[in-house]
Amino acid sequence: MIDSETKVVGIIGNPVRHSLSPIMHNRALSHLGLNWVYLSFEVEPARARSAIEGARDLGMVGLNVTMPFKMEAVEWVDIKDGSVILTGSLNTLLFKDSKIMGFNTDGIGFLNSLREKSISLQGRKVLLIGAGGAARAVAFVVTQQEVARLTVLNRTPQKAHRLAQELSSFKPETEINTASYDLDLALVISDSDLIINATSVGMKDHPGIPIPTDDIDQRHIVYDLAYWPLRTELLRGSEERGARVVSGLEMLIHQGAESFRIWTGKEFPLPIVREELTEYLKSIEDRSR
């Protein structure tokens, strides 16, 4: 029941109607018996900064920030966590003592999702598909885990090269390079053991597959950050060829868990939330058939 003591958190972006964050966080808040509510706010780009400042002034606890504001909002915060300085983007805001504090929980969320499944990054040859905000967060955390090599693949080669240069400056002892869709893709896939899709290709509104699965086999782990459908075309094709696959739902849950801790100081009920979101997505897929 919402009353005068209810604490408010939420998500700001455009669009946000598709977001699973309200379902995820409200389930966690309810399970823990907290008098909190999580709401979504779709804001026009020209008003995003004033909306965030207004949320602070209204006494909200914090916000998640999604596209298209994750990079732009870095300039609007008073205090930047190290993850924000490193990646140049944020996804979580905390309002405290009239200040706006910014965090990026994508990278640690990705890493914790692997840890939960006992997947180590040490010594791995990683192929990262994408060079946008999510890819950047993943790339910086991956390079800190003593991987043998990180290869960046992107439809716009200039973006891949730019990210690779930043990563090389950050972690010069790690082998970091780029790959091309035109020349050496099959060889790079065969010589990688962890493949991460950090593009929107494969999501419900962007159907397709970011790379062919012909060269994927049981040696590979394939992680698709897309979470809807639960089994993207990339995951289905990779699984059929014997690869171990991980759904983007795992990163969504774990990055949400980090935001939740920042706001509430409490542990996120991972199994409860995972069950809630899985059932919700399955019900949507069943209705769309």
UniProtKB/TrEMBL annotation:
<feature type="binding site">
    <location>
        <begin position="130"/>
        <end position="134"/>
    </location>
    <ligand>
        <name>NADP(+)</name>
    </ligand>
</feature>
<feature type="binding site">
    <location>
        <position position="248"/>
    </location>
    <ligand>
        <name>NADP(+)</name>
    </ligand>
</feature>
<dbReference type="InterPro" id="IPR046346">
    <property type="entry name" value="Aminoacid_DH-like_N_sf"/>
</dbReference>
<feature type="binding site">
    <location>
        <position position="66"/>
    </location>
    <ligand>
        <name>shikimate</name>
    </ligand>
</feature>
<keyword id="KW-0521">NADP</keyword>
<dbReference type="Pfam" id="PF18317">
    <property type="entry name" value="SDH_C"/>
</dbReference>
<comment type="pathway">
    <text>Aromatic compound metabolism; 3,4-dihydroxybenzoate biosynthesis; 3-dehydroquinate from D-quinate (NAD(+) route).</text>
</comment>
<dbReference type="Pfam" id="PF01488">
    <property type="entry name" value="Shikimate_DH"/>
</dbReference>
<feature type="active site" description="Proton acceptor">
    <location>
        <position position="70"/>
    </location>
</feature>
<dbReference type="InterPro" id="IPR013708">
    <property type="entry name" value="Shikimate_DH-bd_N"/>
</dbReference>
<keyword id="KW-0028">Amino-acid biosynthesis</keyword>
<feature type="binding site">
    <location>
        <begin position="19"/>
        <end position="21"/>
    </location>
    <ligand>
        <name>shikimate</name>
    </ligand>
</feature>
<dbReference type="GO" id="GO:0030266">
    <property type="term" value="F:quinate 3-dehydrogenase (NAD+) activity"/>
</dbReference>
<protein>
    <recommendedName>
        <fullName>Shikimate dehydrogenase (NADP(+))</fullName>
        <ecNumber>1.1.1.25</ecNumber>
    </recommendedName>
</protein>
<dbReference type="Pfam" id="PF08501">
    <property type="entry name" value="Shikimate_dh_N"/>
</dbReference>
<dbReference type="InterPro" id="IPR041121">
    <property type="entry name" value="SDH_C"/>
</dbReference>
<feature type="binding site">
    <location>
        <position position="106"/>
    </location>
    <ligand>
        <name>shikimate</name>
    </ligand>
</feature>
<dbReference type="InterPro" id="IPR006151">
    <property type="entry name" value="Shikm_DH/Glu-tRNA_Rdtase"/>
</dbReference>
<comment type="similarity">
    <text>Belongs to the shikimate dehydrogenase family.</text>
</comment>
<feature type="binding site">
    <location>
        <begin position="154"/>
        <end position="159"/>
    </location>
    <ligand>
        <name>NADP(+)</name>
    </ligand>
</feature>
<comment type="function">
    <text>Involved in the biosynthesis of the chorismate, which leads to the biosynthesis of aromatic amino acids. Catalyzes the reversible NADPH linked reduction of 3-dehydroshikimate (DHSA) to yield shikimate (SA).</text>
</comment>
<feature type="binding site">
    <location>
        <position position="225"/>
    </location>
    <ligand>
        <name>NADP(+)</name>
    </ligand>
</feature>
<comment type="pathway">
    <text>Metabolic intermediate biosynthesis; chorismate biosynthesis; chorismate from D-erythrose 4-phosphate and phosphoenolpyruvate: step 4/7.</text>
</comment>
<dbReference type="InterPro" id="IPR011342">
    <property type="entry name" value="Shikimate_DH"/>
</dbReference>
<feature type="binding site">
    <location>
        <position position="227"/>
    </location>
    <ligand>
        <name>shikimate</name>
    </ligand>
</feature>
<feature type="domain" description="Shikimate dehydrogenase substrate binding N-terminal">
    <location>
        <begin position="11"/>
        <end position="93"/>
    </location>
</feature>
<feature type="binding site">
    <location>
        <position position="255"/>
    </location>
    <ligand>
        <name>shikimate</name>
    </ligand>
</feature>
<keyword id="KW-0057">Aromatic amino acid biosynthesis</keyword>
<feature type="domain" description="SDH C-terminal">
    <location>
        <begin position="248"/>
        <end position="277"/>
    </location>
</feature>
<keyword id="KW-0560">Oxidoreductase</keyword>
<feature type="domain" description="Quinate/shikimate 5-dehydrogenase/glutamyl-tRNA reductase">
    <location>
        <begin position="119"/>
        <end position="200"/>
    </location>
</feature>
<feature type="binding site">
    <location>
        <position position="91"/>
    </location>
    <ligand>
        <name>shikimate</name>
    </ligand>
</feature>
<dbReference type="GO" id="GO:0019632">
    <property type="term" value="P:shikimate metabolic process"/>
</dbReference>
<dbReference type="InterPro" id="IPR022893">
    <property type="entry name" value="Shikimate_DH_fam"/>
</dbReference>
<dbReference type="GO" id="GO:0050661">
    <property type="term" value="F:NADP binding"/>
</dbReference>
<dbReference type="GO" id="GO:0009423">
    <property type="term" value="P:chorismate biosynthetic process"/>
</dbReference>
<dbReference type="GO" id="GO:0009073">
    <property type="term" value="P:aromatic amino acid family biosynthetic process"/>
</dbReference>
<comment type="subunit">
    <text>Homodimer.</text>
</comment>
<dbReference type="GO" id="GO:0004764">
    <property type="term" value="F:shikimate 3-dehydrogenase (NADP+) activity"/>
</dbReference>
<dbReference type="InterPro" id="IPR036291">
    <property type="entry name" value="NAD(P)-bd_dom_sf"/>
</dbReference>
<dbReference type="GO" id="GO:0008652">
    <property type="term" value="P:amino acid biosynthetic process"/>
</dbReference>
